[in-house]
Amino acid sequence: MTRAERSEPDLDRLIDGIRAWVEVESPTSNLHAVNRMIDRVQADAVDLPVVPERIAGREGFADILVLRTVGAGERSGILILSHIDTVHPIGTLDGPLWFRREGDKLYGPGLFDMKGGAYLAFAAFREVVRTGSARLPITYLFTPDEEVGSPTSRAVIETEAGRARFVLVTEPAREGGKVVTARKGVGRFEVKATGVPAHSGARHQDGHSAIKEMAAQVLAIEAMTDYARGITTTVGMISGGTAPNVIPQHARITVDLRVRDAATGADMEARILALRPNDPDVKLEVTGGMNRPPFEKTPAIAALLAHAQAVARDIGIELADASMTGGGSDGNFTAALGVPTLDGLGIDGEGAHTEWEHGLISSIVPRTRLMRGLLETLQ
C-alpha cells in the first residue's frame, strides 16, 4: 500500500470545509472581506505545528498568510500557492450563486476558482503536517490579489519560490481533471487619447476627436492577434466623450495581451508601447507592459509531471497534461524563475468567474489524495 492509499479523506468533511471557505465572500477589491478570509484560514490552521506569518497588506489589498513547517525557509522544499480572493462581489452568495449541491456539482462564488482547490490542498497539507509524513519542508502561501495580477504578492511569491525545490499551484483543473504545465504570458496596457474639443454643430471643423482616433487604434491593436503564433490582443474596456454634441476630447481603452514565450512578449510589448496617433492633433499615451511572464514547460517541469502521474496511478487515477492555457496564474512567476511548477491541481469543474461556477464533487477526494501523495513523496 502506498502512502497516498493509507487513508481515505472524508468527503462530507471536505465539503463542509469548502462551504465554510466559500461562504466567506472575498472579492479582491474589498480589503476587509479578503482579510476575513485570511482570518478563516489562519483559524483553521491554529492547531497545526506550523509557523504562521501574516504580512500586512498594502496599496489597498489584504494581508498575505504564510504557513511554514519546521525547516521551511531554511532549506529548499515545497511551496504551495493558493489565492483566496475571488471576482464575485459581496452578495453573490445570497443572489445568483448560492452555495448548493446538485448531483455531482457544488456551486458557490469562487468555489471552482479557487477555494475548492485551496481547501482540498489545505486538507492534504493538514494531514501531512499532523502525521509528519512529508520528506521536504513545506511552505503554504495564501495570497489576496491574484485575480488582478498579484501586484502586492508577486515579490513574496518570487522570494518564497527562490527557496523552493518544487511549486504546487491549486488553480482549477482543466478539461476533465488535467493539470497545467504551461501558460501564456499576460500583458496589460492602457491607452489614452487626448483630442481637441469643439461644438459638434457650430465648430465641428475645429475639433479633433479622441474617440475617432481611438477607434483606429482599437482596430490596429485587435489586428495584432495572430493565432498561428499564439498571440491574442483584446481591447476589453473603452470609455470617452462627455455629450452627444461635443467633439470628444478624451478616450481611454484597456488592452489584454497573451503570448506563448518571453521573446514574443518583449516584441509585442514594444509594438503596443510604440503606438502613435493617426491624427497629429491628438495626443496618445500608452502605458503598461507584461504583467505575468510566460510559463513554459521545461524538462524539470516534465519530470515533475511524470512524478505526479506516478502518484496518481498509485491511487487509481490517470493524470493528463493540458495543452498550454491562455489564462495566467501565480505559477507563471515561479516557472519563469526556473522552479519546477505544477499547476491546475485544484478541483475539477467549470464556470470560473460566472454565475454558474461549480466544482465536481467526484473530483474532491481524488484531488485531495493526489495533493497528499505529492507532499509525501517529493524529495
Characterization of the model:
The protein has 379 residues and is α+β, with helices and mostly antiparallel strands. The chain has helices at 11-22, 31-44, 111-131, 154-161, 210-222, 262-273, 299-314, 331-336, 364-377; strands spanning 51-55, 64-68, 77-83, 100-102, 105-107, 138-143, 164-169, 185-194, 198-199, 232-240, 246-247, 250-259, 283-292, 341-342, 349-350, 358-360. The protein contains nine helices and 16 strands. The strands form four sheets. It has a six-stranded mixed beta sheet with strand order 1-2-6-3-7-14, sandwiched between helices. A four-stranded antiparallel beta sheet has the order 4-5-16-15. A four-stranded antiparallel beta sheet has the order 10-12-8-13, covered by helices on one side. Helix 1 (11-22) crosses helix 3, helix 3 crosses helix 9 and helix 7 packs across helix 9. The protein is elongated, with a radius of gyration of 23 Å. Residues 1-5 have low confidence and may be disordered.
Record the SSE blueprint.
Elements: H1 11-22, H2 31-44, E1 51-55, E2 64-68, E3 77-83, E4 100-102, E5 105-107, H3 111-131, E6 138-143, H4 154-161, E7 164-169, E8 185-194, E9 198-199, H5 210-222, E10 232-240, E11 246-247, E12 250-259, H6 262-273, E13 283-292, H7 299-314, H8 331-336, E14 341-342, E15 349-350, E16 358-360, H9 364-377
Parallel strand pairs: 3-6, 3-7, 7-14
Antiparallel strand pairs: 1-2, 2-6, 4-5, 5-16, 8-12, 8-13, 9-11, 10-12, 15-16
Helix pairs in contact: 1-3, 3-9, 7-9
